[in-house]
TrEMBL record:
Keywords: Membrane, Transferase, Transmembrane, Transmembrane helix. The chain crosses the membrane at residues 37-59. The lineage of its organism: Eukaryota, Viridiplantae, Streptophyta, Embryophyta, Tracheophyta. This is Glycosyl transferase. One of its GO terms (molecular function) is transferase activity. It comes from Macleaya cordata (Five-seeded plume-poppy).
């Protein structure tokens, strides 16, 4: 009975055979049976004793089975330990059930077979396209960011130092499924010039879980841990694990990345620099598609297209990264501070099936202002490479080559771009649009629709709309409300952006997630598109309004937030006709209403009602009441009881009677160059559209930096029917006069209006100084005598002094011109300081002064439905004769009666801050 066995004989078979030999009577005699039985039992007991000894010692986890001294043990374990016993032992000592015991690294390690050369493209066109695009990107970044080589990066001062005192702790996370690269990764990491703190090997739903576990066990290194789950957490699981690290930095590697031995040192050093500390670093990245000539964005996998973007580095096209380059997202490896990992989970991802790489970079930029960078390499030193064997990417199929996955990833990056992700294309090609609308609900979309349509239908104008998306305002329903096809929500073209606010807020009732999502997305969209104005409704949710305000203020190119009352939206369609250079000044002007009143309470009541019924676009409009000392009690009670919801209300009352000259001229004084004064006597009545006219004119002719009209000193609300400065006071009709140009063109006139006009701050300061230098109790002492003008004899008129100044300096007022002299204000010619005064010999016919008020949108009357260019505005002199602006200046200079003496070819130049005359200059 020998102990010899074939190599294939299993331990159980040998013991079973020995017992069978005894039972089947191979002993020859009965006496011998007893002896043989004892001998057999003794042998059996001895065999089990040997088995137990080997089992208890050599199966101990403390024993390193890779050492040469244990080769015999390995042999014996294979020979003597039955597999079912091994299984029961491991089941008792581990969660996993292993069929075989841990082996040496040599025996357990497997390696990918790479029996082909690195793939190279021979497509000359593609090589050219890719190279050109890469050069463009690098050139742009070198000028805007500064791109460093590896040696330049390593020369930068860093927080982390390999030699101390600040040696970083780095947790490396390896995610494995089917590849056979774990040993190569661990070997590389064990030989890093900067030692790692921990390595976590993850196996989520892997069919190779047991073999991966054996490999980790075989290294017998307490710093290397194996973490497994039967559930497949896919691509986000490794980042969820990274949240648990106590290290300073995290290095997450795909299973096809074999880092060079200097990578941890290089990555840590760069991550510790001031320039790149708020970044995610890697070795492979992608630059997303650029817009095509048809304004569409292609798929990032589109072949033979420069616009499809770049994969960096790309050995197939001989593109090596030798300078650090910013990319739109990283692939295959990510190195970042442990703190930044949290950012990935601020928003619910578009999908958990793929796209964690893009989602990480997008969230980091959106909420942390962090960039994604591919590090440069030393082409001659593979130890500086994070991807030392790129051919691994071609060994087995990857998810990104399947059509449905490509579609999902295309949808994902487009969603990122359309919710404010500033990609390399967006950084290199900043857009400039006129308006960006924001609607948080479908009702808001419907309310804004007329203005959106007007902008989009106006030649030369660009406007897009942003909707909240999700439960607040679904994109397709918003498109339907705008009479757009639902397909606009799926096209990769700028038109409608939906933020998907629900991805952040979920079921939360807190306003914080909504504010955060709106602000972060809108900040990016504003940076990409640089809208002149960001338009929304004034009654939008207050928290959303705050977010929009903050987002608009982040743009250095002036994007002005415009808050419109719902009822005003159809009334401001003329916004689309303004230049994009004028639109940002929407909120700059401050127009105050200044009423001069004394004892005409019924007239004042009519004026106040007309003011209350007008459209104000949500602007703040201060109102002041200027009363002389003899104001009556009824007027005081009326003023006190008047409610004005559009701004502050101010009272001024004289102690000593001042008269009309002082009452009007002292009723307003500008506080800044953006402060405009509307002066109204109490027998005036205004149109509901008066404020819209003022704002439109100011934006078109005063606040547009492309328009130069320094002669414009006021805006009239009234259209005169008489030439009042001529003795005969002939009737005059602007519509008839300008019929050869356009019957309803607005025009410039040298005559200021006293029956409803807005005065400009710079020229009003001039007027104050001028009047102070010329005003006397005896008007006949005024030296200014305008040839053939009735104004020379006016005694108690503030307007006479303003006429004099405007004539001498060539200033004009802009007048409306609509059919039948329909205007934005009218004078009811009620008894006062001038009308029906005892010493006034002029008889006034009310029909010559009272004009109809405009009760409908004025755009339909204007030439081409909008204000004409400033260069096409006709101009009239004081006597209603057509004269150029230069001619007006020449007439005033020729008179040589200004407050300082100038030659006939010069006019007086004034310090606009003080209103004081400064010097003479040619016009």
């Amino acid at each position: 009975m020998g102990m010899a066995r074939t190599a294939s004989m299993r331990n159980g078979e040998y013991l079973e055979g020995m017992i069978n030999e005894y039972v089947h009577g191979k002993a020859k005699t009965r006496g011998h049976k007893s002896t043989k039985l004892v001998a057999g039992l003794t042998c059996l007991q001895f065999a089990f004793a040997i088995y137990a000894t080997f089992l208890l010692y050599y199966m101990s986890p403390a024993v390193d089975l890779r050492n040469g001294a244990t080769k015999i043990a390995q042999h014996w374990k294979q020979f003597i330990v039955p597999p079912h016993v091994v299984g029961r032992y491991q089941e008792a000592s581990s969660v996993l059930v292993a069929e075989n015991p841990p082996l040496t690294g040599t025996e357990v390690c497997e390696h990918e077979k790479i029996d082909f050369e690195q793939k190279k493209s021979n497509d000359a066109q593609m090589i050219k396209l890719k190279r050109e695009l890469y050069d463009e990107v690098l050139d742009f970044q070198s000028k805007s960011l500064g791109t460093e080589t590896l040696s330049e990066l390593m020369a930068l001062k860093s927080k982390w130092n390999l030699r101390g005192p600040n040696i970083p702790k780095v947790t490396v996370i390896l995610n494995h499924f089917k590849r056979k690269t774990l040993c190569s990764q661990l070997d590389s990491l064990l030989h890093q010039t900067l030692p790692f703190h921990n390595v976590w090997v993850l196996s989520f739903g892997s069919p190779n879980e047991l073999s991966l576990k054996r490999i980790v066990d075989s290294y017998n290194d307490s710093r290397i841990s194996f973490i497994s789950s039967s559930y497949d957490f896919k691509y986000y699981g490794r980042f969820q694990m990274a949240l648990q690290t106590e290290a300073d930095l995290v290095y997450i590697l795909d299973d096809d990345m074999i880092p060079g031995k200097k990578m941890l040192e290089i990555l840590s050093h760069v991550a510790g620099t001031d320039k790149y500390k708020n970044s995610v670093l890697g070795s492979i990245g992608r630059i997303l598609p650029f817009r095509q000539k048809d304004y569409m964005f292609p798929s990032y996998r589109k072949f033979r297209s420069k616009e499809a973007g770049l994969y960096l580095p790309d050995p197939a096209y001989d593109i090596t990264v030798d300078k650090i380059v910013q990319v739109d997202f990283l692939s295959s490896s990510w190195f970042l501070s442990a703190e930044l990992v949290k950012t990935l989970f601020i928003e619910t991802p578009f999908t958990f099936m793929t796209g964690e790489d893009l989602h990480l970079s997008y969230q980091l930029q959106k909420y942390r202002g962090a960039g994604s960078f591919v590090l440069p390499v030393d082409p001659k030193d593979k130890e500086t490479w994070g991807d030392s064997e790129h051919r691994l990417a071609y060994v087995s199929e990857t998810t990104v080559i399947f059509k449905d996955i490509v579609q999902v990833r295309d949808d994902q990056w487009w969603r990122a771009l359309s919710t404010g992700y500033v990609t390399q294309w967006a950084a290199m090609h900043p857009q400039k649009i006129d308006a960006l609308f924001y609607a948080h609900s479908l009702e808001e979309v419907k309310a804004l629709a007329p203005l959106i349509e007007k902008f989009r239908s106006t030649v030369g104008k660009k406007a897009y709309i942003v909707v909240s998306g999700g439960k607040f305002c679904p994109c397709e329903e918003a498109a339907t409300s705008l009479n757009w096809p639902k397909s606009v929500c799926r096209e990769r073209r700028f038109k409608i952006f939906y933020l998907g606010i629900g991805a952040l807020s979920g079921v939360s009732d807190s306003e914080v997630p909504v504010v955060q999502a709106v602000y972060s997305s809108m900040k990016g969209l504003i940076k990409i598109h640089n809208p002149s104005v960001l338009i929304t409704l004034s009654d939008i949710d207050s928290n959303v309004k705050k977010a929009l305000k903050m987002a608009s203020e982040t743009n250095s190119n002036q994007s002005t937030l415009v808050l419109l009352p719902r009822s005003s939206v159809p009334k401001v369609l003329w916004m689309a006709d303004l230049r994009s250079t004028a639109l940002p000044n929407w909120n700059k002007m401050r127009i105050s209403v200044n009423i001069i009143t004394q004892n005409r309470a019924s007239s004042l009541t009519r004026l106040l009602k007309s003011l209350s019924d007008a459209y104000y676009l949500g602007d703040e409009i201060p109102i002041s009441f200027n009363m002389d000392s003899k104001v009556d009690a009824e007027t005081i009670r009326l003023v006190n009881s008047f409610e004005w919801p559009h701004g502050p209300k101010t009272f001024r009352r004289r102690i000593i009677q001042g008269g009309l000259i002082r009452a009007v001229s002292e009723s307003w004084y500008p506080s800044s160059d953006n402060d405009f004064g509307l002066l109204l006597e109490d027998d005036i009545e205004v149109s509901p559209y008066y404020y819209l006219w003022i704002k439109y004119v100011l934006l078109a002719y005063h606040y547009d930096p492309q328009v130069s009209l320094p002669e414009l000193s006021s805006i009239s609300l009234y259209t005169p029917r008489l030439v009042e400065v001529v003795k005969e006071r002939p009737k005059w009709n602007a519509t008839e006069f300008f019929k050869n140009i356009h019957p309803n063109t607005p025009y410039l006139h040298q005559l200021p209006c006293s029956w409803g006009a807005v005065f400009f701050p710079k020229q009003w300061r001039e007027f104050y100084v001028y009047m102070n230098m010329r005003f006397t109790e005896d008007a006949k002492q005024n030296p200014v005598q305008i040839p053939k003008s009735r104004t020379n004899g006016w005694q108690a008129s503030w307007k006479k002094f303003l006429i004099d100044m405007m004539y001498l300096r060539g200033y004009v007022s802009l007048y409306p011109n609509f059919p039948n002299q329909t205007s934005f204000s009218t004078n009811h010619m009620e008894p006062g300081a001038h009308i029906s005064a005892k010493d006034n010999v002029v008889k006034h016919d009310k029909a010559d002064f009272e004009v109809p008020l405009l009760k409908e949108d004025f755009r339909g009357f204007l030439p081409g439905g909008k204000l004409p260019p400033a260069s096409r505005l006709p101009s009239l002199n004081l006597f209603n004769q057509a004269v150029s602006l230069k001619g007006l200046k020449a007439a005033g200079a020729k008179l040589r009666q200004d407050v300082i003496s100038c030659s006939p070819t010069d006019v007086v130049i004034v310090d606009h801050e003080t209103g004081l005359p400064s010097h003479c200059a040619k016009f």
